[in-house]
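We modelled the chain as a single entity of 100 amino acids. Its sequence is:
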Amino acid sequence: TNSVGDDEGSIQNPDWQELCRNGIVQELNRALFDKRNINRHVYVIQIGAHIGFEKNDPIASGLLAYLRLLTDEQQRQRFHWVFVEPSPPNYDRLVENVKQ
């Protein structure tokens, strides 16, 4: 199930806030908003993505919340999220979840 709308699936999640303290949002903003980087693309590669978009996944919930805040379509098109999951059963579920 997709948990994007709940309290844990937001930028208020304490685990996402910890990632923010380590600079992930600042780096994303620098890459996407700095006029000198107008042609730069951002790639987030999530190794061990499991089935994606889980309630307890601070990366997924935080990045989805971040992407919802991006209103410029060109900035969104320069953001690429790559999921890597080596377990075949988890990969199959991940593919289904990403389609949604």
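As a brief sanity check on the tokenised model: The longest strand covers residues 42-47. The CA atoms of residues 53 and 60 lie 5 Å apart.
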